[in-house]
Amino acid sequence: MTHTLPLHAGWQFKARAPQTPLNDDFAADSDWAAASVPGTVHQDLLATGRIPDPNVGLNELDVQWVGETDWLYQLEFDAPSMESGEQADLCFDGLDTFAKVWLNGELILESENMFVPRRVSVAGQLREGSNELRVLFSSALLRGQGIEAELGKRQLWNGDSSRLYVRKAQYHYGWDWGPVLMTAGLWRGVRLEVYAARLDELACPVSVSDDFKRAEFPVSVDVKGKIAGNVVLELLGPDGAVVASETRPAAGSVAHTFSVENPALWWPAGHGEQPLYTVRAGLEDGTSSELRVGVRSIRLIQEPVADEPGSSFFFEVNGMPIFCGGANWIPDDNFLPRISPERYRTRLTQARDANMVMIRVWGGGIYEDDVFYDVCDELGLLVWQDFMFACGMYPAHTEFQASIREEAEVAVRRLRHHASLALWCGNNEDYQIANSVGAYGPGGDESKFDALSTYEELLPEVCSRLNPATPYWPGSAFGGPNSTDQEIGDRHTWDVWHGAMAPYQDYPKYEGRFVAEFGMQSLPSLALLESVVAPEERFPASRTLEHHNKAGDGPRRLNVYIGDTVPIPADLPGYVYASQLMQAEALDSAYRGWRRRWGRDGKRAVSGALVWQLNDCWPVTSWAIIDSSGQPKPAYYAIKGALKPVSVGVTVTGKGAEVWAVNGTTEVQTVTLDLRALTLEGKELSAETRELKLAANEVTELGIFAAEHDAASTIVAATLNQDGSVIAREVRWPEPFKYLTLPDPGLKVEVTGPNALSLSVTRPAKGVWLESAPETVWDDNMLDLLPGETRVVRTQKLSPSNLTARWLGAEETVRVGEFERA
């Protein structure tokens, strides 16, 4: 039986006194304070009041010394008694980053990679009774700068250039959405394991037959140590019942393949259920290990696109092509141990509830905690997993690549069993930066692109050896000779916002076969800003507000897009609303325009759109659609509508309003299409109703409507109805909105129950944004309302007495007040 002693309580930490000999510094009685494990130095300094909260005001600037300091940790613990022949291992799941560890005065470990857990055999070093652990964390910033001074400065985007030599979460160095907070500490768990034998490397690369009628579960596990007895291998069904078991002698590597007829298939969200089987290995002494796995096939399809140059880039799950609407994921906090399992589940559930099917784990963060992938398995969220390289010309010297290989093998072994895992990707934007400096692409000197061997040799070798069933892609963006190619591979569409700052209405022009990044900034919620910005700084363009926008010239670019869309408000509440309305409109244009190009079999011109980004790590003006307090922005609801299983789209051209519908389901859908054209005052100019059959997993073009009306003053609305209910809608208003004179809409809101509101207007209303309390959850928001219809919005934790609304043209937020309960 493995006896595990968690080593999380009783730690102390202090800043290293550089002029004092190390042993004397450890032995000194002064300056020590309680340390949290798992934790970071910053968290403990916050807890003891030694630093201000870096999320507040300009405090980030006052805590930079933390990252330039070496830190000491120590712990006294009593080791459990050991039987003859037993082993003892100290296990460090996360050391951030340059660490040396001593046990009872003996150096047992040196680590320089934050992403690699460490296991050290210590049976010979443990003492009866009290034992002492000491850890020295050297400043990652200073160590990295020392390596850089020796090996040379390399080109990058974002952060201190020394980060390229350091295997630490790259966003800790600062990004164009995040602060510079150079953490150190025992960021994941620490434990002592005592055992005669333990189980290691439990694996089960599930496969399924081409007709999906038979699945094979090849289970293997290594037995470390010596034990007399057997290993019991078990396969449990999604209901928890044992499907099959096998008993083998407990020696070395043990393997057996279970076969299941008519297995329950795992599907992405919205396309089916997510049944998970459990694979378990157990020793007779009670030691056990288990994995949850799903039965599914996944392929990355690159094939000709009918009547177009280039090739497709779509994911096929269980033989079904899937349009992958989704989002990019960054670490949900600057201090990683603060991200609880509940927080992971909440954030990912928000993504699933917005009709997303894919999350890309971006390469400047971390390989996320196990619970992240467990929840993705349960929710049906496909995971595009980057390796941790981002926006830089990384080195490839022997020692660095050895560390990378170890890191990659650990990550692949840990994550390969997850049903949600859809793709391994070599890096984020490293081909783009190489392209920009003449080290890649037409005429480029690839000898200057050292990391090419990492992305095209080392990483694919690790993936093909350890996880051959999951596709590997060298980088994002990657495809043709130019990283911005629109006809091959995946693309990052930053022609809007970055680059030429194209109008967001032009998003559909800047398509790619798979758009893995695109985005538009907005402010976070007013409540979040007020929690971190002093009252005297709560105005647009204040020093504090601009400090909480890390995108270089972000405030200027944001003002351009707001000013192109609506008049720029002078007050902070109005500025928040204007930025969020503009972001929602931009992302709606992108998702609907690109999803229109999903086409049909043989013509999958655009097959995915992953917004940059889902979440934030601190209170900031950024491209996130959910702010760091967990509040969805209006763009969240725009995306939710655009990604409905069955959706409708409208775009206004010189010829009229082009209308189309997307059926993302596997069944033909019979729907009623209602089309309306109205004036800004609400007068109906024309209307049309059609009965339609929408082919399965296809886009259906529905023609041109309202061609005879003046586009500069006409609202065009399309709804799809099924069985008496509206299942999709889209309303297109004349643009830019700043030119419009909008009458008071005569908004009426009724609280029709503890979890529902009813809304109606006498004149058209654009962008009705409802707020109640921070904990209120809305099923829809940022609404376009038209006369003659009643919209029901369902809620959780509604606070009717605090209910407010704002819409385009309103001078301020309106307190709705107490309403009659219907």
From TrEMBL:
Protein known as? Beta-mannosidase B
Q: Which residue range or ranges hold the Beta-mannosidase Ig-fold domain?
A: 742-797
Pathway-wise, it operates in:
Glycan metabolism; N-glycan degradation
EC annotation from Swiss-Prot or TrEMBL: 3.2.1.25
Catalytic activity, reaction form = Hydrolysis of terminal, non-reducing beta-D-mannose residues in beta-D-mannosides
PANTHER family documented for this protein: BETA-MANNOSIDASE
* UniProt-listed InterPro entries: Beta-gal/glucu_dom_sf, Beta-mannosidase-like_N2, Beta-mannosidase_GH2, Beta-mannosidase_Ig, Galactose-bd-like_sf, GH, Ig-like_fold, Ig-like_GH2
